[in-house]
Amino acid sequence: MTRVVDETHHSEVALTLDGATPKTLGVLDQGALWANLAVSLLGFSGALLLLNPLGNAPLSLAAALTATVVGSLIGTAMVGLSAIPGTQTGKPAMVLLRGLFGARLSYIPSVLNIVQMIGWGAFELWVISHGAMAIFGTAVPYAVWVIVAGVVTTALTVWPLGAIRLLRRYVTIAVIISLVWFAVDFLGKAQPQTGGDWSAFAPAVDYVIALSVSWVPLAADFARHSRSSKAAFTGVVGGYTLAQVACLGLGVYAVALAGAAAVTANPTAVFGPFVAAPVGALFFGILVLRETDQSFANVYSTTVSLQNLMPRVDRRVISAVIGVLTIAIALAVDVTSYGAFLGLIGAVFVPMFAVLAVDYFVLGGRNRWNTGEDAPARWAMLLPWALGFAAYWVTTSSVTVPAWDDIWKPLREAVRQPWMNGALGGAIVAAVVTLLIGLLSGARIGSRR
Known about the structure:
mainly alpha, Hydantoin permease, globular, disordered N terminus
């Protein structure tokens, strides 16, 4: 009798881009991965930006929670759709962009993604270290925690599919128990802000969308290993939406307990109520340990993005170098500019997603994209991306980098209406211009050229 071997026990990501792409991840694997990525330690302090995104127009609790649900659904739908081409082609995100922009032009978003992922990776090591120090105090220095977290992160990138299966089997259950434990404790103690209105609803939705779409540039890196497009999309939208709503909702109560002023002055102050809860150190320790999945995802995405530039270099070598670099940055650089970073990411990658979605799903890109190293340049696709980037800054109400925002202020004041949303504005403009370019160039919608 022939014995059937479970492929999930032995398949791993190929060491170079030339290798085969194992299809071992089901909907539960994807759901567990994205649910864990949605729970961020400093995502709890993000409730400050959710409740008062403009700094002078606080939302009511109902408005803030509605913005969380609406923004999460919009953002995760973008991430889920960007995952599908990865499943269908077996290509990581930046290699897919060879089909959209051409091989050489795909280096532009690849470099941008490498920079932002290294930044996010260093930020996560900073977060993990401060979370550990909230539990253990200063007996173990910050630098030691950074190095330990960096080593664990790098090790996970060597066995990425194994890391995802570990999340599904063990970590996700522990995280759910921890969140429920803290929710029960906080609901009996905290008094979230009352009052406020709906006037800042659009910028609050902008903020929540930005939290989600920061993952657009790496969705295909993991979805390419899904057994089906449905599993990838459902895992992203279901897992990430539920967990992000829970994370931000819990954050509202954590901020109320820690004090908004304290969290504004020091975002890690939000850790206090978690550690102070009964058996809080244990359950918060689970959340700190789980945060390594965030740094793992960032370092792994950096690795496969670099493989777009160096397709035959062993990913383990790249991961080791990126791991060391990320540790060094976390030790030497202030990586706490969270809100500004999110705004910049949204402005760059939301329009790029819209260009990809229209060209791939509407204009028949799935049938004609060339993702090889010889893919010709498609200069026209840079235009809708650039216009979408500009539209984001014209329609957004979020101020991130004052000097940069001053450039857009006159046009924004002339054009923007209170109901406008930067993420949607950038996506719509990029999508419409892409569609027009496709139609003018003779593309037949939904079919081969």
